Structures are given as structure tokens and as C-alpha cells.
Amino acid sequence: MTIPKPLYVPALIALALLVAPIIGLVSRVRWGTLGDDLFSSASMTALGLSLVTAACATVVCVLFGTPLAVVIARAARRRASVLRAVVLIPLVLPPMVGGLALLALLGRSGLVGKPLFEATGYSLPYTTAAVVVAQAFVAMPFYVITLDGALRTADCGYEQIAATLGAGRWRVLGRITLPLVLPGLAAGAALAFARALGEFGATALFAGNAPGVTRTMPLAIYTAFNGVGVTQDSAVALSLLLLVSTAVIVLGLRSWRQDAIR
Amino acid sequence: MNRKALALLAALALVLTGCASNDADQKAGDRITIFAAASLQGVFDDLAEQFTAAAPEYSVAPIVYDGSQALATQIVEGADVDVVAFANEASLQPVTAKGITGTGAIFATNTLQIAVAPGNPKHIVGLADLAKPGVATVLCAPQVPCGTASRTLLDSARVTVKPVSEETNVTSVVTRVKQGEADAGLVYKTDVAAAGDALTGITPAGADAVVNRYPIAVTKNAEAPKAAQAFVDFVLSDAGRKVLERYGFGLP
Which stretch of DSSP H or E encloses residue A130? Predict the structure, then answer.
């Protein structure tokens, strides 16, 4: 189809809105000290923590999100739409509200957290586990919705044939359903990982900001931004690193997507 | 270009100009924008109220409170502001270095206290208790004024604390202790006073030696320079000092 020419104007404005800030960020990078800023022990600690926690959060999403996506994709229409709305909640919550909600449930004075703390002396906030919980909370919708979409568009014919040939439910799921949506599963996992990597608000409120324990990359960027002089360069350097890693994930995602269209 | 497209573009242009009309044209030369350190929350609202009562020709925009360091960054990045009030002199340096303000005048002082839950259930008596296992302590990050002071105080007492979280402004530390998510935090004594029954404050040994001095300054490119100077003069006046004293601030 040919697009009406005037449409290019707002289209370019939208594109500029998305790309120009990134150019601005790159213009701020001090290439001379980039290496020192990136490989300072504080940066490396934050990066390592971010990678580990985001990976754990992704595993949590895959372990628990996959069954949920299967249930939603195969549920009756009305029930599925209700479930989808529930799954989308963390996506539309302001990040800080997510953190508040997690504190209200699992904090020391929270609904579940309080009895747990009084009984065992264990509390989740300020631990690396809290970071994983916060990241999984915000990344789960991405994974579930992506996989749900893949499951719905997958051909049910194979499943029915396998079932008529005597395959049990587990066997159909493991041998037919999941292999068919593997690209969607990988895409969802990559999206969830990228989202977990960039998670800031809920982490800041729920997990706090302790170097090496809960200070992930976004929190390190925020703390550096609040520092004086020299450390702001490392905020920019870390932002660049986060930007590049997310870009790599998104580009990797595209090749997955293209594999999926056979 | 056909008529429909023209209409569409015209509509878009209208919407865009609508979005772009900021409050600059509404901002008269007597509305003061103030950036103030998180620990000044409360006292500065009070000061602004008394100031506008005394000088009704001026008005004060809702005051922006945050960690001094975060505010300094925003100002250096070009935020429009008339008056800055920070929690220590060091945090004003980057702003002064850029030529945005002078060194300002010191209008108040503050010292640290250990904030704990009402009744002090963990029986904390001094800084050494903050390092005990089983005591979850929250501190300000070392870059922000309350964190710099906390570090100085702990170093002078030769205590090493591993905080469960480092916050970028003092209000977050107060909130975590208030909510019971942390056992103790180092905050300003004015924060403890402002919290009323929600917190108990313990003055550790040596706290009086670590004094934060609060500078206030008018920016060189202030949009309301006359009003801004009038507000600063009010804060430094006897009436202003009385308000500060009532909130527990020391006076220079």
C-alpha cells in the first residue's frame, strides 16, 4: 500500500522522540575514561549482580509463567480475558507502586512478612532474593503475554492428532505444544530478562540499595547520578552499557522472531 | 496535499502547541521556585507560608524536596530555579562552580541522631549497636550530605556499619525506620523531632562535633530575583530563625 505523504511528518517526530535521547546520552560519554568508569569495582559489582538477579528472575518467570500461559491460552474465552487482565497489572502499575505493594505484602510489617519475621526472624527486604522477587514481578507479564500469544496462534491440530494416537496430556505438552512454541518461549524469556535488567522502581523500594547485595545497575546509575563530579561519568557509562546490552537482546529477539515464521 | 491531510496536520499542530504552552507565560516575576534539601521538608513549607503572609505580593511555587545532590545535578543540568537551600556546603559547590549561584549564606545547622522505633525495642544506646548482628541499619549513601556526616561520625567512633540499604535522601531513611522495615537509621535530629511519636531519637556520643551547615542562595539567572532575595532575607531574619529553631535546627 502507498502511505499518504503527510504521514511522514508525525512519523519522523515519533522516531526522533525515540532515538534523539539515545544520541544525547551517547554524546555525554567520556570515551577517554570509559574503560575506568566501566571496569571500576563498583560498576562491575553492580553489573554482576544485575546479570545474576535478572537471570534468576527469568528462570522464575519460565518455571511459573509457562504453566500460567498454557492455562490462559487454553482457557475459555471469558476466563482467559480476565486472567490476561490480571497478568497485565504489573505492566501498568507505576514502578514505585509495585515496590510499595511488595513491601505491604512481604515487608517486615507486611501481611505475610510480619508473621514470617516474628516466627523465624527472616525477612525478605534488603536481600538479593528481594531483588529477584521485584524483577520477576515486573518481568512476568512480558513472558506470559508473549508465550500466550504464541500458544494461541500455534496449530492445535498436532495436539489433537497426538491425543488420538494415544499420547497422554503430559506427553502432548512436552512433545508437541511446547516444542511448537519454543521461539515464542525464547522471545518471552529474552524480553523478561531485558525488563528485569532495567527494573528500578520496585527494587529501590522493596530491596533497598546496598552495594553488592541489592545495588543493581539501574540503582548504581541512580546513586552515581546523585553523586558529585566524577561519579556522574560512571552513571553515563553504566547507562551506555545497559543500553548496549538491551539492544543486543532486542536484536537477538528479532532473529528469533524470524525463525518463528516458517 | 489534499484537504483531509491539511486538516489532519492543522489539528496536529494545534495539539502540539497546546502541549507546548508551558506555565512560563503564567509565571509572573513574583512566583518563587525553591529547591530544598529533603531534611527541610516541613520547615520550608512553614517558612514559605509565613513569608507569603508577610509579603502577599509574592507567591511560592510548590517546593521541590530531594537529596541535595540530586537537586544539584538537576540545577547544573539547567533546571529553572530561583532559590536553593542545601544540607551542606559541599553539595552547593558544583552549582557555585558553574557560576549559577554564589556561595550563599549559612542559615541553619543540624546534627545527627540515631532513629529507632518508638520505645527503642532493640535497646540501642550508641553507634556500636548499629553494627551488631540482628540490627538492620539504614544509612544515607556517602555521596549525599546526611551520608557524608554519617560516615564522618562513624569513622570518628571507629565503628564499621554494613547498612542493609543506602538511601539517596534522608527522608527515605526516616520512612524505612518508621515503617518498621529497618531497626535503626542515622538521620538528622530535626527528622526525629518532626516524626513525633513515630520515632525515638538517641543522640550518640560525638554527634555534636559533626555539624551540617545549611547554605541558601539565589540563582544568578533567577526569573524572580527580587522575590527570591526577599525570601532569603526572610529566612535569615529573626522571624525566620524563630521558625527554624522551633523545628529543632541550630542557628549559625
Answer: helix A128-153
- Report the percentage of chain B scoring pLDDT > 90: 72
Q: Which residue does chain A place closest to B70, by CA atoms?
A: A226
Which of A6-10, B5-9, B43-47, B142-146 comes out lowest in average pLDDT? Answer: B5-9
Nearest chain B residue to A117 by CA distance is B181
For B244, the grid coordinates are 527554624
CA distance A43 to A58: 22
Which domains, from first to last, does chain B contain? 30-109+212-246 (3.40.190.10), 112-209 (3.40.190.10)
Q: Of the candidates B6, B12, B69, which has its C-beta nearest A10's C-beta? A: B12
Compute the distance between CA of residue A185 and CA of residue A182 in angstroms, rounded to an integer: 5
The answer to whether the CB of A184 falls within 8 A of the CB of A144 is no
Single-letter amino acid, residue B91: S
**Alpha-helical runs (H) found in chain B:** 3-20, 43-54, 68-76, 89-97, 145-156, 170-178, 189-195, 225-236, 238-246
Instruction: Report pLDDT digits (tens) over B6-48.
Output: 565 555 555 555 555 444 434 456 799 999 998 999 999 999 9
The sign of the torsion formed by the CA atoms of B60, B61, B67, B68 equals negative
Domains of chain A, each with CATH number or no CATH: 41-260 (1.10.3720.10)
Closest CA to B249 of A13, B241, B74: B241
- The Cα B84–Cα B104 span in angstroms is 9
A226 and B1 within 8 Å at the Cβ level: the answer is no
